[in-house]
User: What shape does this take?
Amino acid sequence: MKKTLLVLLCLVTLNGWAQKSQIESAALYFNNAEMEDAKKAIDAAFEHPDTKDNVKMLYFRAAIYDTIATSKDEKVRKLDIDAAEKWALAAKRCLELDKKEIYKEQIEYNIVNAAFACNSAAYEASQRGDYAKVQTYYQLVIDLIPFDKNGDMKSNNLTEKSIVFNQFYFANKEKNKDDQKRYLKRLIELDYQDHLIYAYLTNIYLEEGDTSTAISYLEKGRTLFPEKKDLIGQEINIYIAQNKLDVLMQKVELANEQKPDDPDLIYTRGNLYDNAATGATKEAQKLKKLADEANKKAKAEKNLATKKQFEATAKETMTKVAELNKKAAANVAKAEADYFKAIDLNPDMIDAYYNLGAITNNKTAAIAEKINSIDAKTQAEYDKRYASYKKVQDSIFRVAIAQFEKVEEIALAKSEKTPEDRASKYAYLKDAYYSLQTIYAGMGNENKMNEYRKKKEEAIINSKKKG
Assistant: This one.
């Protein structure tokens, strides 16, 4: 038994010596520029438990993989596609274990070059589409930053901020939301001054259905970057989705105070007034129907007390209708003022022209209602009153026509380079032509009505064409 143990001890000792000889062999091969053999020898020493943490082995492993990674000889570089990674890991481990500081000076210089090599390798991996390896290389660069004693990495913009942003960029390409969030949050911790960080985080959480977290990041971004339209736009969309128009109006008013001559913000405020007017008008129409029903019941009711109750309900409801219509009219006026101001600042703001056309056209509805309510004893009386209303209605129609024709003019000048451009262009044209078709129908101009009906159909066909 003792004899067997002695034999085993001898074998272990001999094996350890054999691995150390691999280090010497690797050094010899390396010094003779025999890189393939140097790689084989150092890999064998690295993989063996007796020498995997040998400082000398790590020093030569770093040197060997440095040469492979940076060689001008393509054959040498092809010895290992991951040479930069192995170089960086060996240099880092060597510095950590070199308590006697035998190789400290050489490795501290070498490790910075390894970081630059890993940064370059990350780009090469991205060209191959190997995004997992991209992240590995970038993380190595970050791990090596503390060893950059002279600030060479920082002076070449190789900082944790820049690298983490690159990590986010490639996580975004992979559509890996968990990694995107992790990198974006790290950028916030690093005080990366870019409002888009908060915009990205807001979008991710909105896509995941976590509106409260999305709003929390959006608010942080708005506090730091109150003037950025990307964040303002996101905020507006969120509150529109939540139907919080009052809160949204406060937000938009604040944004307009900060950027009073921004046509997009002015248009947005006008659009909110427009939506508020539409909401008030719809509510007024619902109440008007209820009032009409109450009046109808009152006329048919025989019981005097019940009759008075119906009449009171109708009167009270019509008071509310009047208040809503007054509110709608005030909001329409504010919307128009903002649309005109936005156009003054940006004459090509097509949405402002379209919305103005819609507002103007809607004004003819009240006149149409008056025409339908004409109660005349003679045809001559009817014709006179009708002509008077029609004259006013047509004058309003002509204003709307000019506004929709401006939409057509701007849309026709738009690009068709991409499918998205084409779809957008012909969507505007289709809507403008439909509006013009409707207006000319209201004016009784059949020729013009048919002209724009045909144009609308052509716009629909063109929107589906490729290239």
